[in-house]
Amino acid sequence: MMERRTRDEMLHMDLMNGEARVMFCETTQMVQACSDLHNASPVCTAALGRLMTGCAMLGVMMKGEKESVTVTIRGDGPIGTMVSVADHGFVRATCDHPEVELPLREDGKLDVGTAVGHHGRMSVVKDLGMREPYIGQCELVSGELGMDFAQYFTVSEQQPSLVALGVLTSGERVLKAGGLLIQPLPGCTENTLEQLELRSPMFAEISRELAAAPKEELAEAWFRGLQLRLLDRTDLAYRCTCSRARMEKALLAIGQKDLQSLIDDGQGAELGCHFCRKTYFFSQEDLEELLRRGLKKEETGS
Ligand SMILES: [Zn+2]
Question: How much distance in Å is there from the Cα of 59 to the middle of ligand 1?
Answer without folding.
Answer: 18
